[in-house]
Amino acid sequence: MNKKSWLIVGLSLAMAASIGVGISACGGETHTHNYDAWDYNETQHWKYCDEHGSDKSNIDETTKANHDFKDGKCVCGATEGGEIPDADLDTREFWATGAGAGDLQNSSWTELKPNFKLTKEPTKDEDGFTLYTIQFKIYAGGDSFKIRQNEKDENGALKWTDGTYFGIDELRNASGTFIDAGTKNIGVATGKDGIYKFTVHTKPAPAPWKDNFVTWELVESVTPPTTTEDMYIVGKLATYPKNDWPGYGVLENCIHMTFDGDKTWSATITVKEGDQFKVYNKLNQQYYPDQGGNLTRPSDAPDGLFEVTWVSGALKPTLKHVHTYSKWAYDSENHWKACDFDNAKDESTIEAHDFSQGDTCKCGFQQEADPDWKIEGGELVEYTGDYVNLKIPADLTVFPDFGKLFGMGKNNTYEFAKCDQANLAKVQSVTVDPKNEHFKVENNAVLSTDGTVLYMYFPCSTETEVTFENVTTINNSAFYYNTTVTSVSFPKAVNVGKYAFYQTTALETVSLPLAEVIGENAFDASGVKTVEFTKVQVIRSSAFANSKVTTADLRTVTTLDKSAFYKSDIESVDLESIRTIGDSVFTYCAKLKTVVFGEKLQTLKGTGTLLAGCTVLTTVTIKTTTVLEADKYLFQLSKAITDIFVPAESVDAYKAADVWKDQADKIKAIPTEVVSAPAEVALPASKKEY
């Protein structure tokens, strides 16, 4: 370009700067920057040209200024006390890798060591560069390193930060001098040994690489190393395919040996038949053995680990086969640690298998599954073991019916009521195999792993008052035949399974405030006297049959199945919400005195001897205006009835209807004071309409 052309471009740039635009020439084409987008860090903001994608490096220096927050927000979009948007954050990671006699002797060219990871600084510098720092001891005469980032190439391997990947040729110090561009290794040209702090100033791709640079500072001078060697293992190793003979002094793919601080250099490597290698001193370019020939695996030693040792001044290194006991070996009784390469046994590690945590020992040896449990598809088919210490196996996924678990005989499926109580009484402990992912033992019970289902309460427990805060489902037969518990509370239980408290003879009080369904025979033949209900809607067959229950609030119940309270001690019943009622629900309830049927009941036909044998029953209230059909044995042997209250407009119809006409002299209009339920027990709106 001639002087005239330069003058024109210069004038154009000057004019562009004065009006908030800029001009650049790339590849012979002229681009005009439009500085119309804001960028910022924690303290300052500036305009940049947003026509370069994610590249924000083309900035208008004249627009740089500190934030001016008005009502907590700056004109650039930054908020007071806020953070830089995620899109502007550099999330890369960097490591120093290299070699030398200083701290770098513990690093390598091929590994990412945690102690050589650069630390990302919390804030950017004033020019918006992200800063990564690291500090370590380096000897200026021979140490060198590169910086590697976490970007991966097309093969999934981590990329080096040189050449195409990070542009190490473009890395420069603060004064603009390129850093060791000839070898592409960052070196220290000061000639001073010491602890240095290195800082990488970078902007994420695709920012121009020339904007990246490295600065360093000497933190502390150190005494030069006591050795004039820098030793490597070089050659051909089958187990270390990147290892090679050094060329032109480049040792990136060679194994750096460790110096003991006195005279000895060593490294432990894997050597197989056919491998050939030497020890090499990088500083004087001397090979050992120094009289020709290579090191190879001794013919009388197996393939495996060898410690290579070289003492300063020696003509030849030494090779010693070493064992690495890192794998388990075992027989049917014992296990031990063995060498990875020749299976040599570490005698000090021999010990018997331990199955305390399951069927598999820590060494990997697995004992046979418990033969007492026959399980198919996760379900119990047959149990033939003893009951003293019951252990639930790892492969059980469905908790078994008690009939199958505690029943008598083989190859039979037992219902709950046929469970052998004698076997149940033998139980002294219950455990769960640690590998079982479906059950756990807690609070004297077998529960689901999330604690919401109670499967079995230990019959051997001596607790009398039991509370389970998180249980929502009480499983079938959970407290089957328990003879010690007197009080149970389940604040969150919604469902009570069949036979859940069957023959719990000591049980007196039950709290189930949220329960909605009570399963078949749930409290059959139990000692329960008082049950706390507020939401129960369905009570299944024989749920409280033969029980001692005297008090239960049934005003929310919509369905009562057959024999639900058969021969129980219930004293008073208010079925305000009842819709369906089964056969013999209250038959032979010898203490029942009053019964109320709500207006939603459609019929009493099919209830058989519903109130038969209720010898002290005196009052029955029916709130339906339509005469309910009923069976002729409805009141059989219930001779104490004095009042059958029905709606006033239906008195005559009831007196004339079949079954009811035999009780005509007792049929009367419902007294005004009992026409509706008390206000304080009125049902929620969601429960009033069905």
CATH fold type of the largest domain: Leucine-rich repeat, LRR (right-handed beta-alpha superhelix)
What would the principal axes of the Cα set say about the shape?
A: elongated
Structural class: mainly beta
Compute the number of helices. 6
How many domains comprise the coordinates? 5
What's the overall average pLDDT, rounded? 80
CATH superfamily of the largest domain, by name, is: Ribonuclease Inhibitor
Share in β-strands: 25-35%
Report on the biggest sheet. 9 strands, mixed
Q: Architecture of the largest domain, CATH level 2?
A: Alpha-Beta Horseshoe
User: Which CATH class of the largest domain is shown?
Assistant: Alpha Beta
- Strands, count: 44
Q: What does the radius of gyration come to? A: 44 Å
Low-confidence stretches: 1-20, 160-171, 178-184, 206-210, 409-414, 675-690
What is the CA–CA distance across the termini? 92 Å
Q: How would you characterize this protein structure?
A:
With 690 residues, the chain is mainly β. The protein folds into 5 domains: 83 residues, no CATH class; 128 residues, no CATH class; 92 residues, Sandwich (Immunoglobulin-like); 168 residues, Alpha-Beta Horseshoe (Leucine-rich repeat, LRR (right-handed beta-alpha superhelix)); 137 residues, Leucine-rich repeat, LRR (right-handed beta-alpha superhelix) (Alpha-Beta Horseshoe). The protein is 6% helix and 29% strand. The strands form 11 sheets. The protein has a 9-stranded mixed sheet, with no helix packed on it. The chain has a 5-stranded parallel sheet with strand order 29-31-33-35-37, with no helix packed on it. A hairpin with a 3-residue loop joins strand 2 and strand 3. It is elongated and about 130 Å long. The N terminus and C terminus are likely disordered.
